Amino acid sequence: MKGKVTMISFLELTLELSRASDMVSPELNNHHRLVAYITYNLGEELNLNEKQQNHLSVAAILHDIGGLSMQERLDVLKFDALNPHKHAKIGWMLLKDYKEFSKEAKIIKFHHVDWNNGNGLKKDGEDVPLESHLIHLADRIATLISKDDKPFNQAERIYGRIEEASGKRFNPEFVKAFERLKEKEYFWFDLESISCSSNYYKKLSFNDQLIDIDALIGIGKLFARVIDFRSNFTAVHSEGVAAVARQLAQFSDCDEMTCKKILAAGYVHDIGKLSVPTEILEKPGKLTEDEFSVVKGHSYQTYVLLDHVKGLEEINIYASMHHERLDGTGYPFKLKGEDLPLGSRIMAVADIFTALTENRPYRKGMQKEAVIEILEEMADDNKIDKKIVAILIDHYQEVTRTRIKKQTKARKRYKDFELALEEDDQMEIQRGKTHGIN
Ligand SMILES: [Fe+2]
Ligand SMILES: [Fe+2]
Ligand SMILES: [Fe+2]
User: Fold this and answer.
1) Which residues make Cβ contacts (< 8 Å) with residue 403, sequence separation at least 6?
2) In this record, what's one Pfam family (predicted)?
3) Which domains, and CATH codes, for the chain?
4) Separation of 107 CA from ligand 2 center, angstroms?
């Protein structure tokens, strides 16, 4: 199996991550894209340069990525959202370690800070980038657009609400830019068809960068965190699957590029889970039929999302077919053995193995004998690839060691993450007490 070197569009990738997180509820109505589009146009009014526009667009496209549950995402859609800083902080924590996103992480961290007559240039002793204030304005404009009428008819009402808060919540200079922008009809017409508006996308693509497989793996790792950290149950799952899949690929004599693609595929194989509300992922007890179909749709959604990114074709096949079975009884495409390349077969085995062996908060991972029994039975029933199962059994200790090492590291990160948030909650409570809100 030979893997070709392909370059991937950074922008397309980022857009798909944000699309995935907006799929969790139809209410969100492409919120990330909408805010990115408004931000971009405000930036044009303010004559920002290409570089500034670029960072702003990526930050806007991802600004609510830290809203991990559906409820959190819906809560901040309200114009006067309560405690909006938590999802902003989570967004920052998710992104800050990735050099590709370091600037964006900072912008996102403060995207709900009020202008407060210029005092909003600092928060808790830290500098707040002006870009955060611009996204803050764009975000609030987006939340004022009602779905009941055409955006064009709402221009004056929305401007009125924004203008009222000029100086208090929003930078007056930015509100002035919005005053000019609101006069341009195309802006409102574009908002109506934002999901298919190619205008904005074309403009942005000029500044797009192409990334190679190693950068893709780095971003894939970030995606894995966004996917996994939504639930304590699955907090380290993708990290485990990716590591196991890569090792199985090596033991199957795949060339280096294919091993890398399989690793990247492992990180993103469950990206479609972003469309499943955490409320369903963590539901104790039995799922209703509707809920079950949402969960079952996740690998299909992975396929659709990755399909939008040119250059990911091969990785998509490895990632999205992880619930297909050789005898055609898997989902969602009902593919059979001859349609499933080695990378997809490896992913299926890696996914099952990781799910069986990893510790979950409510149970310990299974022991070797029981795991081997299940895998061999599935191989005998022609569900999964016999050869790959044999390779896994031959290298059981080594694969297990790798899985544990990677997952322990990921679990530690997740714990740090939880801790920081708890501290943040405590601080909010303290702040509430000193301000007499509690
Ligand atoms: Fe937000
Ligand atoms: Fe938002
Ligand atoms: Fe899955």
Assistant:
1) 240, 243, 244, 353, 354, 357, 358
2) HD_5
3) 31-194 (1.10.3210.10), 211-417 (1.10.3210.10)
4) 13
